[in-house]
Design brief:
It is built from six helices and two strands. By secondary structure, the protein is mainly α. The protein folds into two domains: about 30 residues; about 70 residues, no CATH class. It has a two-stranded antiparallel sheet with strand order 1-2. A hairpin with a 2-residue loop joins strand 1 and strand 2.
Length: about 120
C-alpha cells in the first residue's frame, strides 16, 4: 500500500469519526422524545400508546412527533390513557387493548373465563 493510499484511508477514517462525533453531539442536544412523553403521560397512557404503536407503527410515529412538539411548546401539559384513546379514535384508529375481567374470591384472583368454566362444571 502506498503512502498516498494510506493517507486517503486515514482521511476517510477521520471524516467518519468526525461525522459520528457530530451525530452524537446532536443527539445529546435534542431531548429524548420518550423523556418528554414520560412527563406528560399519566395513568394508562403508555399502555394505549404502546398498543397503538404496535398496531399502527407509521401513524403513531407521526403522532409521537406531534405530541412531543405540542408538549415542548407548552400547549400540552398532561395526557391520560382515556384522552389518548379518544384522540386516536377521532383520528380513525381503533386501538385494541388487552382487557381482563378478574374476580377475587377467597383471596384468589380468577378470570371471567375460569369463573364461567367452574360454574358450567357445577351444573
Amino acid at each position: 500500500m502506498s503512502d498516498r493510499e494510506l493517507d486517503a484511508l486515514r482521511l476517510r477514517k477521520l471524516q467518519e469519526l468526525r461525522r459520528k462525533l457530530a451525530e452524537k453531539e446532536r443527539k445529546t442536544d435534542e431531548p429524548d422524545s420518550q423523556q418528554i412523553l414520560n412527563l406528560i403521560f399519566k395513568d394508562r397512557a403508555w399502555e394505549v400508546f404502546r398498543s397503538a404503536s404496535h398496531q399502527f407503527p407509521e401513524v403513531m410515529s407521526r403522532v409521537r412527533e406531534l405530541l412531543v412538539k405540542e408538549a415542548t411548546s407548552g400547549n400540552l401539559k398532561e395526557v391520560t390513557g382515556e384522552q389518548l384513546y379518544l384522540f386516536l379514535a377521532d383520528l380513525g384508529l381503533k386501538v385494541r387493548l388487552n382487557t381482563k375481567i378478574e374476580f377475587a374470591r377467597h383471596g384468589e384472583l380468577k378470570s371471567l373465563e375460569d369463573k364461567l368454566r367452574e360454574e358450567l362444571h357445577k351444573t
